[in-house]
Write a structure and sequence with these properties.
CATH class: Alpha Beta
Number of helices: 10
CATH superfamily: P-loop containing nucleotide triphosphate hydrolases
Strand order of the largest sheet: 2-3-1-4-5
Distance between the termini: 11 Å
Largest sheet: 5 strands, parallel
Strand content: 5-15%
Structural class: alpha/beta
Helix content: 55-70%
Number of strands: 5
Length: 231
């Protein structure tokens, strides 16, 4: 039994849920099994493919989000963000569209190309996480954003397995010292669970033993996403 050449496994979840631990565990386990695996984190560390995106983000912070601080007062930050996005629908839609196109290019280079070269890619965050963040950033309902996945998958790879590592926000908050608000986690956890229902993700318990989660994910991959490769 061999993983198909264009095999992609995605792991999603709130910060502190244990998704990175699972993703890296999958990478190590699959390598031990003899697969050529590449780990990709959804955060490109500030790299943008569209040159116009960075100055737009800077201008948006100066003109619209001045006086707010996501870390010190997340509730105030979100209230202002929702208010601005609601009053400037065209601008927020334009911004969201640019972010979406930028990620389409990133994903093609960082995920699709390695997979097409025969690697098994484990993505720690993928398009689903991007769509969730876009819905929040542009103050649009999640269902109004999810249709963009149809456009995304015309150019990029559909994952063979998606795992949502679900952990109560209070526990995730204690795990991560750089998370600044329970509201931040609570808002995103609710959206992730809604997305899991819509896309039929495999939901894993983030409070379980990490090695056990890796074994469960591997078993699910072999049951649903791995097929014999013709010799």
């Amino acid at each position: 039994m061999k993983i198909r050449r264009t095999h992609l496994i995605c792991v999603a979840g709130i910060d502190g849920s244990g998704k990175t631990t699972l993703a890296l565990g999958l990478v190590n386990r699959l390598r031990d099994m003899g697969y050529d695996v590449q780990y990709v984190h959804g955060d490109a560390h500030g790299i943008q493919f569209l040159p116009i995106l960075k100055p737009i983000k800077t201008l948006a912070k100066i003109f619209f989000m001045r006086g707010t601080n996501q870390q010190s007062n997340y509730f105030h930050y979100r209230r202002v963000q929702v208010s601005i996005s609601s009053r400037h629908r065209l601008l927020s839609g334009f911004y969201g569209g640019l972010c979406f196109l930028d990620y389409c290019a990133q994903a093609f280079v960082r995920v699709a190309l390695p997979a097409m070269r025969g690697k098994t890619v484990v993505a720690d965050r993928y398009i689903y996480d991007v769509l969730l963040n876009l819905a929040l950033a542009t103050a649009r309902p999640l269902e109004a954003i999810l249709h963009l996945s149809n456009i995304f998958f015309k150019l990029n790879i559909i994952p063979n397995a998606v795992f949502l590592v679900d952990t109560p926000e209070e526990i995730a908050f204690r795990r991560k010292s750089d998370i600044y608000s329970l509201d931040y986690l609570r808002e995103r956890r609710s959206a992730y669970l809604e997305m899991a229902r819509r896309f039929d993700f495999a939901v894993l318990d983030g409070q379980s033993d990490p090695d056990g989660l890796v074994s469960e994910a591997i078993a699910r991959c072999f049951r649903t996403a791995i097929q014999p490769e013709s010799s």
